[in-house]
Amino acid sequence: MAFELFDHVRIEHKNVIGNIVDIYPGDDGQPVYTVQSSERGYVNDPSAYNGDFPLYDCREDQITKL
Fold it and tell me: How far apart are CA 58 and CA 41, in angstroms?
């Protein structure tokens, strides 16, 4: 399933809901989706970029469209 910018998604293994804010090609040529959490605040997760709203880089098989 292809995703587009601003799709509302869930990161399955983290149970995080948010929106896709960026799409870029990964090292293997497959798309990587940057998902911005819809919940504000710091998260204790080393894979997240913590800003006002945490950001996560995900592969297509890690997210589900809502």
Answer: 19
